[in-house]
Specification:
Chain lengths: 769, 543
């Protein structure tokens, strides 16, 4: 009890000087300041959760679209439509359309061989460029690339013409952007004499060109052109042309797709079959497989296309289904791969008239005969948007080059221009936590791979392997820590003299304060190589130490009482320290003999042969030790508090009834304090789950899912630390990492709260006892 | 035997075993760090190892281990190998070499063997052949050269210091000024206004830049002269295998002949090396030299954090304990605040990055530093954001400790104060707060200890492996809170795991680890002692 503070002379003077009013005012002011300040501080601390949640929220918002413009092309493009068929409004002669990257100018390619550029501000025609190389011919088919730049046109006399549409951007004196469209025509290639109803064209390094086309009488032609230049500089063209019609066995082709590598040609038929030709050998196109893609001969394939990267095939059919397909490894196939349906996407009410893939991500648009356009994300199968037209079939469809808009033209010649805000297309619950079938994988899997080398790389954000890693590390750490910490706490609280207890507790508390970066460094650079050398000894240590402890008790009990009595209660246990050092030394000596005896001299090979486990130097065992070490003091301190606060009369009663001190500890004290020990373990769990530096430094950080103690993992926390510095602010990766942080926050917060409630209850229970 | 088990003693001893094992681990860990960290600075003797095939190696013995012989039959004599630090990275490529014991013919300790600590390429072990000034040989042989070297080394050190000062201070100043003027011009351009007046002002600023550039060039030429002078004196060292290496004496930091030194000399050298470690700048991508910037950064960050965390923590605790209406809601709030201490630090780091850096820092940049955009000033990691993040991380610690202290003040004292007519605020200010002072201090120390050892949140809020400048320097406003900084804990992570030559860097990491642990343990001990005193003063239960 401290003495009352004395009023000093100066205080007295101050006291006199203060009028009651001023003092009351000061009191009130202080009260307001402290109340508001306190609430503000507490709220701002709690605002962490709110802020992180707000940063995560946009992931779920989905896409938004706005109709930025709607123009009647049949009116604005009078001149162009006139020459073809001015009266038929219902079938506007459009074949392809596109839009520039600033979404200011749209263009349409019509049957009469003209490219019309339209301002998307007012729908007025800006410019009309006739295609010189096919002047006077009618265009019968067209196909565009994802970025709205390269188009392939098929003519009524069997030619194809590659066309590049360019927008040259310059700035005038007032810093206004001026976009000048330009059409660059390529070299026409003669494919056939009849009109071409479907065309596909790709050029590989300008030396090799491939064309697939369907003629008006239903023949399917594949043509390749190889340009070789001799040393003198003479160019030699070698052309190979194949008629693939016989292999179609009379099926009517409704859509074709040719990938950019000129490796695969896909053809869809009216009966819903998908024909796949392997055209890697240009001199020998081989029909690889024929798949019934729609499952019903009544349902035709209506359009084919590729997702960015040209590895996933988009299939739209007559019943309104859209799906994506890619080749996966399959040993039953002669080439080892087989085309499989990976994702079933939009379900339209009418037949699918057009598909367009996003030039940025794995999203795709599909339009139907009812004028509805659906935006899907292929890998996550997330339906992002549904755009409504005016009920007329959509004839042409294109994604904006930056994937921030879409344009479509329906059969009446109405052009729709939507702006799309779609910041996080690939993320949904399924992609984050479920198995996802990524392109090129043989089956759906959990994958975390946030960055890749190529432009068309798809980031893979499965948090499951990371959460798995977190729990794996936690599991091994707790397996190591709980027995040591709880047994140690029982020992200190029950069998030791209070003076010893006061000595040991601070030591353990200091252990709790050791920076985890230190533990991680030692684990990664000192312990990992060491344990790799002496693994057999490590597994020997617990057994040897237990045996030595038991023999030590045995010897101790043989000692005369006079010797035993000299030790302060519990201090005899310190005799174990030198014994343990000796025991560990013995294990080290035994390491090589045991390795030779049991594992044939190489435990790694032995483990691999027996269990099929690979031994990594930085593995879960190391993390278990290091994190266990970090968490032992926390579990120890809290359990010890709970154990030593068990009311003394319970213990005395038990001892008085003749129970040994062990019986008292285990039958009386432990049950009473079990809730406290549980809460200690929970708090330890919370600490381990979020531990960052140790897992970062002592594991290989590979996001694999494997319970083996001998390999590493990647934990949520380490993943955040590694990846967030490189994650662009506001991007999908950034928000996914915030989600990981939110998960960690919630898990630890809930676990800690539960532990705290348990502790409060326990305290009440002790007061009642 | 039955009695043996029934007595319970074996179980008691097993619990004791668990405790002993834990204590052994702590002891072992501290011992390991001590041994490795302190041993690093000791100038051990240089061994000349001659192999049976005649090959010779010169270096310091750093370790010894058993060679595993998987296929040997039982009873084969054990084989050992020693790890020799042979240095001379520029000649051999690798600093360390393992030598099998049974291949060694003899080990000598030649007294004239010299260890050179160099600015580049790490240590060099060898014998001095001669010293040249330009092309003139001024000393030949070990004895003569050693004396000459002793004379020249302090001079070159002086020149080196001058160079460093010019590079850091003067050239740094010019760069700073030029950058500032450039930003001023941009600022004027952004603001716009009367074109003619603007042009005139920009002209004058541009002229100033030119002026600075001229001054800069003068200093450059002065520097070039100094560098030339530094390269003037050369030393020729022959390695043990007979190769010769000529190098400027200016690149030598320290040269000594450990085999010829007395124990006292070695102790003095040891102390000077420890001092260099604590006060020097890092070299060779942080694997050599000192860690002063890291210590400075850590201390400064912790200080800023304390300035923030102390008033806020105490204010919140005062509110919770003295002003708020005690009830269920308050109990929930208290549990929440308590549990925030258990939320992983990386989560706070993520919050710091998202909120402090991108939201607040980004806004500051948009309002006050428009001229520097798109280069971020506050919108990127910096010491202020790291400190604030850690303040947020540690404020629950201060709140909890302060509350505990406030709760421990006996009611009678407070009631006495009220009875004497003091208002609530006066009571708190003059009676309660002073009594709770030790508790507040404990909280602060625990917060500091936690912040000192924390690395994960710093990695994403402003720590770098090598900061170009300290957060405090001679340029107005002297304290640069937006600068990135170095930190002891991150230094350990970075040097230990990201450096190209981990083996050579390890001793440095152990030494840094030791320093960090000493600081943390010292702070914690202080907190524990204060807390124990406090408990004695108000003997109330605190569980």
């Amino acid at each position: 009890m401290a003495a009352l503070p004395k009023l000093k002379r100066t205080d007295q003077a101050a006291f006199d000087a203060f009028s009651i009013k001023r003092r009351r005012l000061a009191d009130k002011l202080a009260s307001i300041v402290i109340t508001f300040g306190g609430i503000a501080i507490i709220l701002s601390i709690l605002a962490i959760l709110v802020f992180i949640t707000l940063e995560v929220y946009p992931l779920w918002k989905g896409a938004k679209a706005e109709l930025a413009g709607r123009f009647d092309l049949s009116k604005s493009l009078v001149i162009s439509s006139k020459s073809v068929n001015p009266t038929s409004v219902s079938d506007f002669p459009i074949l392809a359309l596109g839009i520039d990257e600033y979404r200011q100018i749209g263009f349409v390619i019509t049957e009469n061989g003209l490219v019309d550029f339209i301002s998307l501000k007012d729908g007025k025609a800006i410019k009309q460029i006739p295609l010189g190389k096919i002047e006077g011919k009618k265009i019968t088919s067209a196909l565009g690339s994802l970025d709205n730049e390269e188009y392939t046109l098929g003519t009524d006399d069997g030619y194809i013409l590659p066309v590049d549409i360019k927008f040259n951007v310059s700035f005038n004196d007032n810093d206004e952007r001026i976009i000048e469209p330009e059409v660059v025509e390529g070299e026409p290639i003669k494919v056939d004499a009849l009109p071409l109803t479907h065309v596909a064209f790709n050029a590989l390094d300008d030396d090799l060109k491939g064309v697939a086309a369907v003629t008006s009488d239903g023949r399917l032609i594949f043509l390749s052109q190889l340009t070789t230049s001799s040393l003198v500089g003479e160019e030699k063209k070698e052309e190979l042309k194949y008629d693939l019609t016989p292999e179609l066995k009379g099926r009517i082709v409704t859509a074709i797709a040719l990938d950019q590598f000129l490796d695969n040609l896909y053809v869809g038929t009216r009966k819903g079959e998908l024909y796949h030709w392997d055209i890697r050998d240009k001199a020998n196109p081989r029909l690889q497989e024929v798949i019934d893609a729609t499952g019903n001969p009544e349902i035709a394939i209506t359009d084919l296309g590729f997702i960015i990267g040209d590895r996933s095939l988009i299939v739209g059919d007559g019943s309104g289904n859209v799906s994506t397909w890619f080749q996966v490894e399959d040993n039953t196939s002669p080439i080892g791969r087989r085309l499989k349906k990976a994702h079933a996407l939009a379900q339209h009410n009418g037949l699918v008239t057009a598909v367009a893939a996003s030039p940025r991500d794995r999203g795709l648009l599909s339009a139907d005969s009812k004028g509805v356009i659906i935006l899907d994300y292929s890998t996550s199968e997330r339906k992002l948007l549904e755009l409504e037209g005016e009920g007329y079939p959509i004839k042409a469809l294109a994604f904006a080059p930056k994937a921030d808009g879409a344009v479509a033209v329906d059969e009446r010649g109405t052009l729709y221009n939507w702006s799309i805000d779609n910041p996080h297309p690939g993320v949904n619950l399924k992609a984050l936590f479920g198995k996802v079938w990524y392109e090129g994988y043989s089956k759906p899997e959990y994958v975390w791979q946030s960055t890749g080398g190529t432009d068309d790389f798809e980031p893979k954000f499965s948090l499951t392997p990371l959460a798995y890693g977190t729990f794996k590390g936690t599991f091994y750490a707790l397996v190591f820590a709980i027995p040591l910490a709880v047994l140690g706490a029982i020992c200190v609280s029950q069998f030791m003299h209070p003076s010893l207890r006061n000595l040991i507790k601070p030591v353990i508390e200091i252990m709790a304060a050791l920076p985890t970066v230190v533990l991680g460094f030692l684990a990664g650079l000192w312990m990992a190589p060491l344990i790799e050398k002496i693994l057999p000894a490590v597994f020997l240590i617990p057994a040897v130490l237990t045996v030595m402890t038991l023999s030590a008790v045995f010897l101790w009990r043989l000692m005369p009482k006079s010797v035993r009595g000299r030790f302060k209660e519990g201090s005899e246990l310190f005799l174990l320290l030198p014994i343990f050092i000796f025991g560990i030394q013995i294990c080290l000596w035994l390491n090589l003999p045991i390795e030779n005896l049991l594992f044939g001299g190489d435990y790694k090979a032995s483990i691999f042969n027996t269990f099929g486990l690979q031994y990594d130097q930085r593995n879960a065992l190391i993390v278990g030790f290091a994190m266990g070490f970090a968490v032992i003091p926390i579990i120890f301190t809290i359990s010890e508090d709970a154990l030593s606060n068990v009311p003394k009369h319970l213990i005395s009663g038990s001892l008085a009834l003749g129970a040994t001190r062990w019986q008292t500890a285990i039958k009386v004290v432990l049950p009473t304090a079990s809730a406290g020990i549980f809460s200690a373990i929970m708090i330890g769990f919370g600490r381990v789950v979020g531990e960052t530096m140790i897992v970062l430094m002592a594991t290989g950080n590979t996001p694999i899912m494997d319970w083996s103690i001998f390999n590493g993992f990647r934990a949520l926390s380490a993943n955040i630390a590694v990846e967030i510095p490189e994650a662009p602010h506001g991007g999908t990766l950034y928000r996914v990492l915030f989600l990981a942080a939110l998960l960690l926050f919630l898990v630890t917060f809930l676990v800690n709260t539960a532990a705290e409630i348990v502790r409060i209850r326990l305290r009440k229970k002790y007061q009642q006892l | 035997m039955k009695k043996f088990w029934k007595s319970g003693d074996p179980f008691v001893w097993i619990t004791g075993g668990a405790l002993a094992f834990s204590l052994l681990m702590i002891g072992g860990l501290l011992f390991l760090i001590m041994a490795k960290g302190l041993g690093f600075f000791w100038p051990s003797d240089i061994a000349e190892v001659t192999l049976k095939d005649g090959a010779k190696f010169l270096g310091q013995i750093r370790g010894r281990e058993e060679i595993p012989q998987p296929d040997a039959s039982v009873g084969t004599p054990k084989l050992y190998r020693i790890q020799l630090q042979i240095g001379n990275r520029d000649i051999y490529g690798l600093d360390f070499k393992w030598i099998n014991k049974n291949e060694i013919a003899k080990i000598d300790y030649p007294s004239e063997a010299v260890l050179f600590e160099r600015l580049e390429w790490g240590n060099m072990y060898g014998f001095i052949k001669e010293i040249r000034e330009g092309e003139v040989i001024i000393a030949r042989g070990n004895e003569q050269s050693w004396i000459a070297l002793k004379g020249i080394l302090p001079q070159t050190e002086e020149i080196y210091k001058t160079i460093k000062r010019i590079e850091k201070k003067d050239i740094g100043d010019f760069n700073y000024n030029i950058e500032k003027l450039r930003l001023d011009i941009k600022k004027l351009e952004l603001r716009g206004g009367d074109p003619s007046a603007l042009e005139a002002r920009i002209k004058s600023l541009e002229y100033q830049i030119e002026l600075q550039k001229k001054l800069y060039q003068n200093k450059e030429s002065e520097l070039a002269g100094l560098y030339e002078k530094l390269a003037e004196n050369k030393i020729v060292v022959s390695t043990v295998d007979g190769r010769e290496k000529e190098m400027p004496i200016g690149t030598i930091v320290r040269a000594y002949q450990p085999n010829d030194m007395s124990l006292l000399d070695k102790v003095l050298l040891y102390i000077s090396k420890v001092w260099e470690f604590v006060s020097g700048e890092p070299r060779e991508s942080n694997t050599e030299g000192g860690i002063f910037p890291a210590i400075f950064g850590t201390v400064m960050m912790v200080l800023i954090m304390s300035v923030v965390v102390l008033p806020f923590g105490v204010l919140a605790a005062l509110y919770l304990r003295e002003y708020a209406k005690q009830g269920v809601l308050l109990r929930i709030v208290r549990i929440c605040v308590n549990n925030l201490a258990g939320v992983p630090s990386i989560v706070f780091g993520v919050f710091g990055l998202g909120f402090f850096i991108y939201v607040i820092g980004g806004s500051i940049d948009n309002i006050f530093y428009t001229e520097a955009l798109p280069t971020p000033t506050y919108g990127t990691g910096g010491i202020i954001w790291a400190s604030l993040t850690l303040a947020l991380l540690t404020v629950p610690v201060v709140i909890v400790a302060t509350e505990e202290g406030l709760a421990a003040v006996p009611r009678q004292i407070k009631e006495g104060s009220f009875a004497l007519g003091a208002t609530k605020f006066e009571t708190i200010w003059r009676v309660v707060a002073p009594s709770a002072m030790p508790a507040i201090l404990t909280g602060l120390i625990l917060a500091i200890a936690r912040a000192t050892g924390e690395v994960a949140p710093l990695m994403i809020t402003g720590v770098v492996k090598l900061a170009p400048a300290l957060p405090i320097d001679g340029h107005f406003p002297f304290i640069h809170l937006e600068r990135k900084f170095m930190h002891l804990g991150f230094h350990i992570y970075d040097v230990g795991f990201q450096s190209p030559n981990v083996e050579a860097a390890k001793p440095m990491v152990y030494a840094t680890t030791l320093l960090l642990i000493l600081i943390v343990v010292f702070l914690n001990l202080a907190a524990i002692i204060i807390r124990n005193r406090l408990r004695k003063r108000y003997a109330t239960s605190a569980f």
